[in-house]
User: Which sequence fits this backbone?
């Protein structure tokens, strides 16, 4: 596939523009990014944002020490747990919210029956909040025919699991574990992440989804001046932005990525007028022999 000229690169969304530190950019995506798929009891993100959230994020980006210290005190490896820590920081420091519990396990007769992601007061109301941070590969035109980067992880299974989690506060076994005031509390899910389909470019600036290809396929390219870099899983949550590129991150424009042993997320980045490189599109490269729940697939998407 031949790269097409791309004279105009769309700006980042206003809630992300100007933010430099990755944890702050990741937090902004948790608060503002559009959900990639629908779930029952989806939560209005405005309830999490509170008053003047853009200004608060910009201030946090100028003075990120408290957030960085918070993350250093709670080292984690899983992307989902990292996302929970970011949201826990926000709920703990915003005037409209008060975090009461995070990752509170419910046990009955010594057996764990569920876990509350968050129990928090938002504008004076008690809430049970579930956070889902997932990235799925679309195997067909059916939006529900999606699997995770690990076989067996499906969108339909995640929806069922979210429904069970959101019903936890209504279960008799959970009542003794609920803090005062949380019986019959409001429930809501906040979903972030991305879908990777067969399109040649990402749906738009700031999207957390994009295209997918198999190892050995030519990579679709949005800009003739763009280069591809690999993103470690810890950096999947927000569009990439940085001052420079490590030599080992670079791929020639449109080059085939071969030999991948696991699903690899690539970002196409361009250098802007300020000297920063920023992501304009992303895609998932699947290793040879990768298979979803329906078995191996060959060729392109």
Assistant:
């Amino acid at each position: 596939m031949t790269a097409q000229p791309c004279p105009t690169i769309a700006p980042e969304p206003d809630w992300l523009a100007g933010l430099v530190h990755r944890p702050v950019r990741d937090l902004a995506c948790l608060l503002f990014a559009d959900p990639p798929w629908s779930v029952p009891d989806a939560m209005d993100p405005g309830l999490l944002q509170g008053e003047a959230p853009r200004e608060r994020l910009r201030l946090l980006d100028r003075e990120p020490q408290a957030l960085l210290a918070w993350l250093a005190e709670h080292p984690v490896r899983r992307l989902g747990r990292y996302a929970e820590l970011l949201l826990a920081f926000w709920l703990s420091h915003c005037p409209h919210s008060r975090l009461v519990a995070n990752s509170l396990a419910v046990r009955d007769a010594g057996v764990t029956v569920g876990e509350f992601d968050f129990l928090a007061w938002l504008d004076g109301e008690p809430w049970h909040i579930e956070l889902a941070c997932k990235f799925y590969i679309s195997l067909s035109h059916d939006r529900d025919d999606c699997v995770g980067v690990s076989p067996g992880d499906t969108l339909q299974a995640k929806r069922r699991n979210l429904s069970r989690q959101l019903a936890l506060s209504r279960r008799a076994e959970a009542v003794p574990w609920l803090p005062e005031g949380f019986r019959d509390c409001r429930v809501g899910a906040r979903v972030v992440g991305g879908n990777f389909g067969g399109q040649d470019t990402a749906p738009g600036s700031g999207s957390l989804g994009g295209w997918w290809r198999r190892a050995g396929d030519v990579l679709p390219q949005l800009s003739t001046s763009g280069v591809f870099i690999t993103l470690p899983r810890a950096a999947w949550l927000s569009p990439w932005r940085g001052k420079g590129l490590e030599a080992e991150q670079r791929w020639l424009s449109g080059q085939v990525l071969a030999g991948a042993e696991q699903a690899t997320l690539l970002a196409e980045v361009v250098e802007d007028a300020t000297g920063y490189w920023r992501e304009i599109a992303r895609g998932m490269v699947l290793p040879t022999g990768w298979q979803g729940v329906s078995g191996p697939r060959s060729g392109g998407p």
